[in-house]
Recover the amino acids of this structure.
């Protein structure tokens, strides 16, 4: 196995934030490590790397990256407030009792507060009609204090999500789900980009690995992750393949990837034999195991011994999705204030 430098991407210094620990004896004068070794996963909530005798992937720490983004956004929010007398505002709309959705929305709201974004919270009963939901969205579309509107998905079955997402003003579409914004991305002139794929792009960029010219394989073709992510990679001049449930010899396609982006929604779907040595692997999945623990779509430990870079679950894409929602909201407020 080859050895490679350890630990510092262009975005987040993983040593500084304590996520990557290498033995001082290995460190040479340029700060890289001559003989790099195998990560051992800690039992704590964070992945702790110790070093044995084989090469390890470097960790793409979405949590730390998201915090850095939030800090920048807090300054931008303060500038909007200073100019307009109003904070950037995000309306959050949650219909029904889905416990996971309640947790997601709460996390989004907490992050907003940390970034100086006003939250306009709407929790509606599962019996809310489509007409009532449309009326609320119309009100938020017309409210000058609101710069972004988030309708948490999934919606109850009696409500047509497509109708709802189209009702959100494209100018306040912080989720980037409106067909206008999707179309703008297709033609290569995005306005609001969907948060999860936008976060994945930032995570790739944080590694310093250039996207241009790379073979990118996106596993999963959903409208909210796989399709927009493929378009964002294409816009950055990657050669992009999208894999899905009907793809023939999917492992062979994955093995071609310099950048392997996985959003298939199946626990530990990507195994080490599907990964090219040194690839950047980003795991968008969040799956609950029978013991209640969360895991991604990538079999983290064995894949981390083969990949060049890898994102963990939790602490990878999830926090970046939230950070990008805030980013879109602040950007919207800046546009409306004539600051962008
Ligand atoms: N449900 C799962 N992911 C998302 C997301 O990114 N935005 C919204 N609105 N709902 C979701």
């Amino acid at each position: 196995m080859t050895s490679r430098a350890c630990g510092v991407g262009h975005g987040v210094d993983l040593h500084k934030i304590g996520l990557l620990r290498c033995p001082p004896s290995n460190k040479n004068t340029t700060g890289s490590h001559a003989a790099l070794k195998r990560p051992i996963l800690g039992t704590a909530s964070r992945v702790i790397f110790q070093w044995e005798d084989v090469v390890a992937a470097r960790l793409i720490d979405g949590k730390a990256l998201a915090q850095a983004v939030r800090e920048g956004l807090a300054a931008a929010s303060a500038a909007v407030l200073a100019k307009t007398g109003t904070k950037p505002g995000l309306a959050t709309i949650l219909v029904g009792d889905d416990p996971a959705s309640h947790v997601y929305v709460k996390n989004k709201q907490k992050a907003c507060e940390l970034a100086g974004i006003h939250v306009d919270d709407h929790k509606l009963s599962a019996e809310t009609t489509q007409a009532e939901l449309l009326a609320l969205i119309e009100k938020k579309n017309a409210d000058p204090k609101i710069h972004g509107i988030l309708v948490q998905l999934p919606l109850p079955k009696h409500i047509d999500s497509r109708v709802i997402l189209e009702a959100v003003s494209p100018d306040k579409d912080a989720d980037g789900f409106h067909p206008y914004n999707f179309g703008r991305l297709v033609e290569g002139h995005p306005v609001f980009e969907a948060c999860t794929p936008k976060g994945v792009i930032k995570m790739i960029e944080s590694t310093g690995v250039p996207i241009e010219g790379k073979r990118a394989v996106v596993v999963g073709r959903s409208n909210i992750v796989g399709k927009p992510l493929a378009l964002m990679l294409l816009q950055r001049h990657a050669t992009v393949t999208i894999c899905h449930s009907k793809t023939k010899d999917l492992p062979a396609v994955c093995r071609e990837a310099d950048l392997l982006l996985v959003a298939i929604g199946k626990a530990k779907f990507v195994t080490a034999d599907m990964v090219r040595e040194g690839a950047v692997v980003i795991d968008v999945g969040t799956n609950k195991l029978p013991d209640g623990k969360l895991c991604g779509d990538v079999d983290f430990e064995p894949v981390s011994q083969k990949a060049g870079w890898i994102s963990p679950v939790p602490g990878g894409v999830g926090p970046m999705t939230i950070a990008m929602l805030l980013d879109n909201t602040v950007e919207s407020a800046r546009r409306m204030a004539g600051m962008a």
